[in-house]
Structure formats: C-alpha cells, structure tokens
Amino acid sequence: MLWAPELMLTLLPFAAYNTASPISRARDKFDWSSQRALIAFGDSYTYVQGTHGLQNYSFIGDQLNFAYDAQTLLSNKIVQNQTASAEGGPNWVEYLTKCGLQPGLTSPKHCKKQLWDFAFAGADISTEYTPLHHNFTVSLVNQITQFKSYAAPVLQQFLPPSQSLVAVWIGINDVGDSSKYAVDFPTFYANLTRTLFTSVNELYDLGYRSFLVMNLPPLDRTPGNQATSTPHPNATQVAWYNDALAEKAELFRRVKGDVEVRVFDAHARLSAMLDEPGEYGIVNTTNFCAGYDQPDIETNYRAYGCPTPLETYFWFNSGHMTSHVHRILAAELEDWLQG
C-alpha cells in the first residue's frame, strides 16, 4: 500500500514549533474555565459508554445504526461502571470535565461542564488508510459526519460553538494497525494527519474555533512491546506521527487565522510517568494484572496474581492505561489548558 507524494498536504515552513512553548501559549485565546462543554472524538482512549450507545464501544450509535433523533441524543446518559470505558473506570475526558464520574448514570446536560462524547472504541481515522476493526466501527471521518448530521443541529440550540472545546485523540489504532505496512512512514503519517484536519475543518465550518488535539502516547512501551526487541510500532514511528500531527495543527492554525488549536503533549507526560512511576503512585509499568476485567478486581486483586491494587499499574491491559493514569493525565491537562 503506497501513497503518492502528490496526495500530501503542502506544508508551510515549520519553524521551531513547540506545543508547550511560551509563544504558543501566549497566542491561545480560549479560556477552559469559561467553556461550558467538551465535544470529544477519537477511539477507545476517549470513548465513554452511553445508554443509547453500542455496549463497550460508544456513547451513541454505530456505523450500522448511524442516525438518531434529538430525543435520543438528549435522553442519552453516560454510564459509569467497571466496563463503561476501556480503562476499568473513568477516563481523561470524564476527569477533565468532572462529568460522569459518579457510579451509575449521568446526563451530560446536568454537568457544570457538559461532556458530549462521539469517540468510538477501535476507531481509526479513515478507511482510506486502514480497514475498520468491525463493520460497526465508526471511523473519525464518520464520527464527524455523524456529528454534523445529527448532533450539531441539536446541541447548538443550547451550546454555542463559542462555548465548546472540541477534543480529538486519534491515531493510536492507525499507527498500530499500519506499523508493518511497506510504506514511507513520514509520508503515510502526513497523509493520515492531513485527513484528520480535513475532518476538523468540517467542524470549523460549523462554527467551532477552539480545538484540543492529543498526540500519541508511548505506544512502543506497551507491555507487549517492552517484551520484544522489535516493537510494533516503534519509538521512531510514534515520533514521526506526532511530528506530522504538530505540523498539521500549526498549518491549520496559520491558514485559518481565527482558530485556536492546542496540541497537548500526552507523549511527554505519559513517558514521564513511565520513567519515574514512583512519583505518581505507580509501581508496575511493564505488564498488567491478568485479572483486570474481573468484577472483584478492586478488592481481590491478589487472587489473580497481582501483588498490588490495579491503581498502582500503569497499564490496564495490553493496550490501555489504567483509570489512575487517566486521572493524572487529566489533571496535568487541566493545568496546561488554564495556562
């Protein structure tokens, strides 16, 4: 599978762009404290279970049940239990908004900062580059198409775009699924991120101007990749994707002029946790508890061969981080957003 050079988005000169630099912070105009809602897109790192979603995959709908009406959306509730996210507990968007943290059901409308989550577990950016994991999977491109058609007309009646921060965390599956492709990876990732921002542009056309983009975690340090001398993806591939993401974000900001795009360096924050786990209450960074999905894992972890509680692990399972790590990441993200 090869990608022609002419498919690449032409990049403007990219001079010393640093996502956490004082310069990039100074030009950010939106104030997270004044935002009323977070509208999220992505994959299993971001998805939350909804009462009208596909179990273990979405807040609402799927590719085979694509359309929904206003009543379905507005009556939908966030589910919070052991299986309502891919982390065994709340994830970063729930911690960031404080919406849906309590066990049971929460209506996004009743949160001080509303969380409207259209991420789909197992999503890639587009079938143009990688196949769907399942025939019901909603890719990022289709998440945004679905949002435009069915959610935006409803939400914008009470949530103006100016009061909503759009968050996108995607690429984890893309880089993993394509890690053994016979392609020129910098070009391939340039095309992936071009398509990502083509879809973000559709949200811009709906009036949204504040965007948060998360870069890739250290996928080369998952338990499986730590156990091999040939990780897939490797650190170089992860870095190439993150570089392409930063370049496209900067290009989008320059071309639009009136948009704020902040790229949060999740890779650096999570790498710091892996490098100095003791500072974060983590004792295990190399593997995960085999009983992570057992209903009594919180209190009976030793029965599954785990010497310490689940919250002391970095990895929840072979590819996802624990809720404890998501909580720390969300706290650092909130501080960063508030500048």
From TrEMBL:
The keyword Ribonucleoprotein does not apply. InterPro entries: GDSL, GDSL_Est/Lipase, SGNH_hydro_sf. It comes from the Eukaryota. This is Lysophospholipase A. Gene3D superfamilies: SGNH hydrolase. Residues 1-20 form the signal peptide. Keywords: Hydrolase, Signal. The keyword Hydrolase applies. GO terms for molecular function: hydrolase activity, acting on ester bonds.
